[in-house]
Design brief:
Layout (H helix, E strand, L loop, with lengths): L1 H20 L3 H8 L15 H8 L1 H29 L3 H20 L12 H11 L1 H18 L2 H19 L11 H16 L1 H9 L10
Length: about 220
């Protein structure tokens, strides 16, 4: 019976994560503030980079904060309920991973906006940071270095996605027992793989030399 309850709790938190993730900041900010839809401009992506290119730095900053925080909140909820109140660490970790996956899926395919969302870079980073802070920060460092040198956000995102699960394997995450070939590692591979798959078109443009570079001069 406990396993059934545990499974249902994982599904519940994954659903909560999905509903939170579906609150796509790019779409909300562009519609409520600019009375437009960012998905009708640029790359058609409802993410921070396209918000920057379409509406400028303030819109991008607001999008960044909202998308980042929804990933943190999605992972924080099962920790409060199951780590603190019930004190079941294993169940709490499983529910946190379910919430993380649900949140990323919601951002990419938001139920409120016709299942057309972003590519999940920022929300993926926020849930990765919550689950495994050191690997996520090192992956962020790789992202910053790549973008600073190449000015390709997509390339930096793909490199960071490749780095993250490798670091999780060797370093592990929070709170404990997450090194090596664990469910935690498998989830990190799934999140990283989804991020790379969502950048398939960008990878194609990079190969052809047609990918747009990041610019703050707008």
């Amino acid at each position: 019976m406990f396993d059934v309850i545990g499974f249902l709790l994982i599904v519940l938190f994954a659903l909560i994560g999905y509903l939170l993730g579906s609150l796509n900041a790019g779409v909300l900010v562009s519609k409520l503030v600019y009375h437009d839809d960012v998905r009708n401009h640029g790359s058609g992506n409802a993410g921070t980079t396209n918000m920057l290119r379409t509406f400028g730095k303030k819109a991008a900053a607001l999008t960044l904060v909202i998308d980042f925080m929804k990933g943190i909140v999605a992972c924080f909820l099962p920790c409060i309920i199951l780590y603190v109140i019930v004190a079941d660490h294993k169940l709490g970790l499983n529910c946190m991973m379910g919430a993380a996956c649900g949140c990323v899926a919601g951002h990419n395919w938001p139920c409120y906006f016709g299942f057309k969302g972003g590519k999940g870079v920022l929300v993926s980073f926020s849930v990765m940071l919550f689950m495994a802070p050191l690997p996520a920060l090192l992956a962020l460092l790789a992202f910053i270095i790549v973008v600073a040198i190449s000015r390709f956000v997509s390339l930096g995102s793909v490199i960071a996605a490749l780095v993250y699960p490798v670091l999780v394997f060797f370093v592990g995450g929070w709170p404990e027992n997450t090194k090596g070939l664990t469910t935690f590692f498998v989830i990190s591979v799934c999140l990283a793989s989804l991020l790379i798959i969502r950048h398939a078109s960008n990878i194609g443009r990079l190969v052809k030399g047609k990918e747009s570079k990041l610019s703050f001069k707008k």
